[in-house]
Amino acid sequence: MNGKNLQIIKKMTIEPIKEKLDDKIKRLNSSRVIKKVTPKGDLSWYVKWVSVFLILFATVARSAGTIPQYDMWFGLFGTLGWAWVGYLWHDRALLVLNSILVTLLIIGLVNYYFGAL
Description:
There is one protein chain. Helix 3 (43-64) runs antiparallel to helix 4 (68-88) and helix 4 (68-88) packs antiparallel against helix 5. This protein has five helices and no strands. The protein has a domain at 43-114. The protein has 117 residues and is mainly α. Helix content is 72%, strand content 0%.
């Protein structure tokens, strides 16, 4: 390899990030940089992620098309989890959306097991 190729390879390598995010935000001194504020590691964090996977399982069941009751049950518990997270975080949008979805899923389950309302 010649010297020119080595310079190109050196430019292509990724340097490890040595600067912490907080330090970088301070250095940028910008009002557009927003640090993530959602809690990590507390109970709401675990409920949030379990709920995400429940809703993903519900979507998989829905796409299979043959097991609608699983779609509704997984969706119900996933949206209940997100409604609770919305309550804990005082996030009205999460709370309203998931409360309405819980109501609709309960109606769907009642219709599935007991016939039309």
